[in-house]
Amino acid sequence: MMIDTPVEKKNKAKDLHQEVDPSKIKDQQKEKLKSIVMESLGKPKYFSLIRLSNVYSDRWRVDIYCDMPVEGRLSGIPDTKITDSFFIIFRDNEIFSSDPVIEPKYK
Predict the structure, then answer these.
(1) What is the pLDDT of residue 107?
(2) Is there a cis peptide before residue 100, judged by omega within 30 degrees of 0?
(3) In whole angstroms, what is the distance from residue 41 CA to residue 28 CA?
(4) Among 1, 8, 56, 84, whose Cα sits 20 to 30 Å from the Cα of 41?
């Protein structure tokens, strides 16, 4: 019968526990929240991107950016503007509250 050294015991214990990368959890939350917001709001005609910022804990700021065409601009380069913005409390993969309330706005 072999006796494990303290280092071997520590290595075996390490093998039993899966390390969780906090950034992966945040990324998963971001993707889930992004999906919920876009499904609820709809996709704007000139949609460019959605940016989610974790303000603190379970509070998020969500901004929807659109590339808006500018009439009379010869270059044809659009202006990027925030068309929608929300402050969201996101808990257990669900929107707990949103200010303003997210309502269907686009098809």
Answers:
(1) 83
(2) yes
(3) 20
(4) 56
